[in-house]
């Protein structure tokens, strides 16, 4: 039996070496150009995520929300960490907060203009979460928790998820805003708004996870 497999392997190898590959017939128009034209914005990745594949993106946002709830649930019965260490030397604090400022500016840029340039809502949210993490390693947990509660970040996170789902459902039902002028800031229909909502959701969700792990696991 093994000789049959060996012979089949040799035949397949010879076939790959000798027989030419049949090149697929490529249409005159580019697939990327078609996607860009369909979405009315130059960022094809954002068009796919927040328009052509919006049904999947809804559940990606829901999964991220469930992951945050799971972190709260799994750590709820544990004792808070007794010792929480953070950077206290001035050079590290200055560099971390400078990096946080840059990451926050990048997050805002990607959230507002993510439909025009490389990036998008998820990338903007990650940049925002990075900024929050850099602030967390140089600040007291009580101060971070106080700001989180003062500005009702948990409520805004839930609101952003619900608004995203509602707008996405309306879009999937076939109701769309005008695309506007290609390359303009107000273009792409409802996609820029969905982009901003995803950025807010991911950034605030990252903040919640950071606070939970700092409280129950310590920072460093």
TrEMBL record:
Its main location: membrane. Keywords: Cell membrane, Membrane, Transmembrane, Transmembrane helix. It is found in: Cell membrane. Residues 94-207 form the Na+/H+ antiporter MnhB subunit-related protein domain. The keyword tRNA-binding does not apply. Belongs to the CPA3 antiporters (TC 2.A.63) subunit B family. This is Na(+)/H(+) antiporter subunit B. The lineage of its organism: Bacteria, Bacillati, Cyanobacteriota, Cyanophyceae, Nostocales.
